[in-house]
Amino acid sequence: QVHLVESGGGSVQAGGSLRLSCEASGYTSSRFYMGWYRQAPGKERERVALIYTGGSGTTYYHESVEGRFTISQDNAKMTLYLQMNSLKTEDTAMYYCAAADEWWLLLVASSVQYWGQGTQVTVSS
Q1: Could you tell me which residues are beta bridge partners of residue 35?
Q2: What angle do CA 123, 99, 18 make, to 5 degrees?
Q3: Which of 18, 8, 10, 15 shows the shortest CA–CA distance to 84?
Q4: Average pLDDT, the chain
Q5: Do 51 and 73 form a contact (C-beta atoms < 8 A)?
Q6: pLDDT of the residue at 91
Q7: Does the pLDDT of residue 106 top 70, yes or no?
């Protein structure tokens, strides 16, 4: 049973920073890909950042967070991070850790295999 547990959310003023963490456990497959999604009230869950750990370390960022957010992963600890700098009010959302056996399954929310419980990020002006 795969478990994803997020932490690090909170309230911050615009321009501030937060670091989210996601600890994964129970994963037995050698192929394991992780990323971050977010969902604001009344909006669809959207892909924020993904990381391809199959050797290249390629990352993907939503255009709205490019240059402000950094995704990273500690494979030994099976922990995913999201460093969020220069936060804006529009970054306010519930942030979810996502994981899948294949990279392509992470690209669409409906195909993600595993979700964390979410951690709230609130950015005030």
Answers
A1: 50, 98
A2: 20
A3: 18
A4: 93
A5: yes
A6: 98
A7: yes
Distance CA 91, CA 14 (A): 9
AA letter at 34: M
Assign 3-class secondary structure to 27-47. CCCCCCEEEEEEECCCCCCEE
Are 123 and 14 a contacting pair, CB within 8 Å? Answer: yes
Per-residue 3-state assignment (H helix, E strand, C coil) for the chain: CCEEEEECCEEEECCCCEEEEEEEECCCCCCCEEEEEEECCCCCCEEEEEECCCCCCCEEECCCCCCCEEEEEECCCCEEEEEECCCCHHHCEEEEEEEECCHHHHCCHHHCCEECCCEEEEEEC
